[in-house]
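To the structural biology subgroup,

Please find below the input and predicted structure for 2,3-dihydroxyphenylpropionate/2,3-dihydroxicinnamic acid 1,2-dioxygenase, which we are adding to the shared reference set this quarter. The sequence is reproduced verbatim from the submission form. If anyone notices a discrepancy with their own records, reply to this email rather than editing the shared folder directly, so we keep one authoritative version.
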Amino acid sequence: MSHSPLLNLPGPPRDLLDDVNAAIGRAREFVGEYDPELVVIFSPDHYNGFFYKVMPSFCIGLHANGVGDYGSYAGPLDVPEQIAQQCARAVLGADVDMAVSASMDVDHGTVQPLEKLFGTATSRPVIPIFINAIATPLGPLRRCRALGTAVGEFLATLDKRVLVIGSGGLSHSPPVPTLDNAGPAGLERIVHGQPMSSEQRQARQTAVIDAAKSFAAGDSNLQPLNPAWDQRFLEIVDGGHLEDLDQWSNSFVMHEGGSSAHEIRTWIAAFAALATAGQYRTTLRYYKQAPDLITAFGIRTAAPSP
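Predicted structure (tokenized):
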């Protein structure tokens, strides 16, 4: 599922929020019926837990703490450390480089789906797996598929009902600082992880709200959403043709989907993990162009075919 800080902020029209929340509610029913004993979530970070000082492609949290950005949960998550360690070893054993963190900070990209699907971020044991989707350089998409496959093969060894979540995407270009455009304060933030004061966090929220209003009004230099590209991606994952995405270059993804479209990496990993159980079938298929959320909002639920 997609995420957006604007789901928790004032500004988006009520009919849009009602539509998105109705789809999330159907996903919540799917999750409730499955009643998972463990959650594994592939998610990006928005320079709240990972910084250019050291930027891994993938990292698994042995312990994790929500930072509380954009009104999301602040505090420790229930991470089963032993299983997370076993997962890291299994992924490394499958020739996929995986960093580990004994003190991972996660933001709304991880916490929001947990809150939306379960009511609270701590209602289920969760293993957070970070996938870099913003900081360049980025590895090829096929490595995300390899990561998901390795994780899925490990999860198959557990005698547990496991829910796998991919959080992010689809086409969107929010105002995120980069090494090329960030000023001195921004560089301290995205390189060294300089903590934000409460005033700075409030200013960032206000800036995001203003950016969304301008984008929705068509008065913005942010890259437009690309529904055709979104639908092509969704068709590929719905059909289980994940290998087709190996041909998508990083520059193609950014050109077509925008500066943050590489969050589809979390979807690729999640579906690759599911595909280790055989052919799957997507059930809930939701898509909404949501400029008021500065993103194309997508949700898919899927399970192995009978």
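Summary notes: The chain has a mean pLDDT of 96. The chain has one domain: 5-304.

Regards,
Lab coordination
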